[in-house]
Amino acid sequence: MMEHTLALAAPRSRFGARLMAHPLVRILVGTLLTFAPVPLVMILATKLVDKPYRVVWPQLLAAVLVWFGYGFYVRRIEKRPVTELALRQAPRELGMGLLLGGAMVTTVFALLALLGVYRIDGVNGVGLALFLPLAELVLVALAEEAVFRGIVFGVTERAWGSRAALAISALLFGLVHLPNDGISVLAVAAACAFGLLQSAIYMKTRRLWLCIGSHVAWNYSVGQVFSVPVSGHAVTSGLVRGDLAGAPWLTGGTFGVEGSLVSLVVIALAALAWLRLAFKRPA
After folding, report:
1. C-beta separation of 177 from 183 below 8 A
2. Distance between CA atoms of 90 and 97, rounded to whole angstroms?
3. Is the pTM of this model over 0.85?
């Protein structure tokens, strides 16, 4: 009887192992474990805490839980160390990412100003309100980079190779922006290009820090520095009082500057540069 029970358990165990080894299953499980804390924390905070006290800490708590959820997935499902979040390289690569994201946004707005579609009306004072959105932006960057680069790109690359992983992760990153206000073909293309850039950075560094830094800097600079919508999400006021006015293919329309042809070109050029680095063979 004991031998019969063991014989039944073995095929079931092998089936479970084969199921968890399937790339699609791993992507779904990894995404669930990584991203689930975000809506869970926000819903609980809304139910249990009054609005004036729901500032910064829910986003930071969710970010910590995203970190642990991703680490749990990597250690228990992929059965490997979480090298992509190694802390030793974090300060340097985060800083590089912040510089990269800020430089790209500054380039975009400089070009738009030269084209006459972005005009600066003045500068607002620097206060605490200017930095409060950072908590949400850190959460968004950490969650999206862990899912789209750490999970989608990582699993797809191991299954089908780097080129397939670059294409699939970039396309999915673009498509998740479809529900956003003011979405357009240019906006989807720019989001796909940004996804390609981020995946190329991850492919080169094999860590998430530079990706997270560039993601945070891009979103923060667009909304909190230049005061325009971020991926269809309106902002109140940033450091610079600016206004976009002109053809939607240049301004991005209600989606914001990320739906502009100028953004698409700047991001695509950065992506090509990082792809070259990622595919460059060591001497």
Report:
1. yes
2. 10
3. yes
